[in-house]
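Weekly structure sync, notes
Attendees: PL, DS, HV (note-taker this week)

Item 1: Late sexual development protein
DS walked through the input record. Source organism listed as Glonium stellatum. Sequence as pasted into the shared doc:
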Amino acid sequence: MRSIISLAAVAGLSLTSTIVSAAPVAKRDYGSVFPLTDGFPNPSASQLQDIENRAFGTLSNAPPPGTISTDGLTNLKLIALNELFEVAFFTELVANLTNKVPGYDLGYGHDFVLQSLEAVVAQEELHTLNANGALKHFNAAPILPCKYNFPVTKFQDAITLASTFTDVVLGTLQDVIQIFAKNGDDGLARGVASVIGQEGEQEGFYHVLQNKRPSTLPFLTTGVRDFAFTAIQSFVVPGSCPNINTIPLKTFQPLNVLGTPSAASTSIQFSFSASHAGTSDWSKLSLVYINQQNLPVVEALQSVSVSGDVVTFTANFPYAQFEMNGLTIAAVTNGAGPFATADAVAQAAVFGPGLIEI
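Item 1 (cont.): predicted structure, written out as tokens:
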């Protein structure tokens, strides 16, 4: 019998890995991977059938609803933007595994992981085609792919990154469904809920490859569209997205998470750009954590120091009090709230998201 735990050990993945995703790092321009050899993002009918075969399932043949709200269209645009990013990421990962480039030769279990991720690529392609197809149905232009930079050079780091952005997706799709519900777009909610389940299956696989529990939390961390929109752009070559300007969402200034927080951490160090703060009175700003389905946690900025344009500070990290496992989204806000929802945090945020995984 194949042992995934043994595979994770052979792949060199750590049992206690903790992930920090912060501001954009120095990246290489990989250029555009599109169009793919299967015609994506504009496959022919026969190419679509091939994608469906590799995805082990089909696009829904049920018709979309007749109408959609303006906010509902924004949901579909963000989903399409994210799915294009995921297709590009996993396409590159599969290519690296296929060619066994340095850092991507897993030895034992290599073929199983490769075949699993090949299915993920095709499934993400269908997610994209579903969202862009719905946009076309509602007479809106489909979202076009960008060029991307992925700051990973080995399999372990790629899986760590995939796990982090999948957690962000799982939180953001909660926000998407709630927005559909608020605006009467209930006809689109069921399809998005099915994608949440599918992404959750992926996340369990990425966890096992890291020797982590497949399920992290009883209630996954919620997200906000603006935070996801900002996070995606940290992997985009500036100016390479043909129509990202048609997505009416906010882009925040970067918040850097410094060091590697863990369950033993009682504080975390962060940094941001002084010139984008809008104030030099740091007492007017707060650090806010979003974790699970709990109320946002507000902490004061402590030990603030300024060097040139870089503001560095620490903030209390109440891991033990709130069992802050899984994804935690950090943001620096104007004011100390209190914030009743993650959406309220986003409305007051200046810097973010800082993505912390424990």
